[in-house]
Amino acid sequence: MNADDHESALSRRRVFLQSALALAAMPLLPAAAETGVLRIGLTPVFLDDQMSFLTRWRGWLEHRLKRSVAFVQRGSYREVMDLIRGGKLDFAWVCGYPYVRYRHELQLVAVPVWRGRPYYQSYLIVPADDRKSAGLADLRGKVFAYSDPDSNSGFLYPQYRLTSQGENPTTYFSRSFFTWAHRKVVEAVGVGLADGGAVDGYVWETLAEFHPALTRATRVIERSPDFAHPPFVARPGIDATELQRFRAALFDMPADAEGARLLRLLSLDGFVAGQPALFDGIARMAARVRRT
């Protein structure tokens, strides 16, 4: 690597670290109960102007539901799950992995539809200039980026892959770390902070559409089988009418002009009811990983 390339790599690393710190410092909406307000939990979304998007989505939901709506954003799935299980949220958009762990407590509300189907995949990615790595086996002893310890695509699936092959995930890589967002996995691998990473394929493909420079710095070397897309869930004991009204609003988004625009920003076709059985594959992986 010449001096110019080295300086460019250092600059990219600085940008990644600065953006990661900015995400961690981002102001979060409170989770305190407020009478009459519908509280919806989210982890950080991958949009550039996410506050503007959430303001528009909140306004649309308030118009449809005829009540106040607040998005409660937290930095990890664990924080969101603790809030909704404790009744401090009414609904939350979570990953399939924490859903299957607590589906005896939570109610499935809706599943996103992406490219005509309620499924997505986990992608294993490496830096674009790594032309030798062809699969997980080539990342032994290297640095690996996960997204979140409660992420299906960003943690459970690679853990399952390793344990299924008789490997120990805690010693397979020389070092691993969490970025706490799928977009940050792409960025970490792209700037060389990690030799590989596991990322939500829907996020990677959406970034490839809107921010190709980010994904162009990475290369997909493996794709998982299909998994049910991360669902919306409802808190324990939620009123059935309240659940049905929120579900209907999500279902109606494609037929409404502003709702359809919001879906396009998310690269989604819409939402469907789905069935808990859609997540049985994730449940089987989780059971296998727990046994090891």
Task: Describe this protein with a few key phrases.
2 domains; D-Maltodextrin-Binding Protein, domain 2; alpha/beta; 292 residues; 12 helices
Strand order of the largest sheet: 2-1-3-12-4-13
Structural class: alpha/beta
How many discrete structural domains? 2
Please, what is the average pLDDT? 90
Strand residue content: 15-25%
Could you describe the largest sheet, including whether it forms a barrel? 6 strands, mixed
Please give the structural blueprint.
Elements lengths: L2 H23 L11 E6 L7 H16 L2 E6 L3 H9 L5 E3 L2 H6 L5 E7 L5 E2 L1 E6 L15 E4 L5 H13 L4 H4 L2 E4 L3 H9 L5 E5 H10 L1 H5 L1 E6 L3 E2 L3 E3 L5 H13 L4 H10 L3 E3 L7 H12 L1
Parallel strand pairs: 1-2, 1-3, 7-8, 7-9
Antiparallel strand pairs: 3-12, 4-12, 4-13, 5-11, 6-9, 6-10
Helix pairs in contact: 2-11, 5-12
What does this entry look like structurally?
- The chain is an alpha/beta fold.
- The protein has 2 domains: 31-115 and 228-279, 3-Layer(aba) Sandwich (D-Maltodextrin-Binding Protein, domain 2), CATH 3.40.190; 122-224, 3-Layer(aba) Sandwich (D-Maltodextrin-Binding Protein, domain 2).
- Helices cover 45% and strands 20% of the residues.
- It has helices at residues 3-25, 50-65, 77-85, 96-101, 152-164, 169-172, 182-190, 201-210, 212-216, 240-252, 257-266, 280-291, and strands spanning 37-42, 68-73, 91-93, 107-113, 119-120, 122-127, 143-146, 175-178, 196-200, 218-223, 227-228, 232-234, 270-272.
- It has a 6-stranded mixed sheet with strand order 2-1-3-12-4-13, with helices on both faces. It has a 5-stranded mixed sheet with strand order 8-7-9-6-10. Strands 5-11 form a two-stranded antiparallel ribbon.
- The model is unreliable at 15-34 (pLDDT under 50).
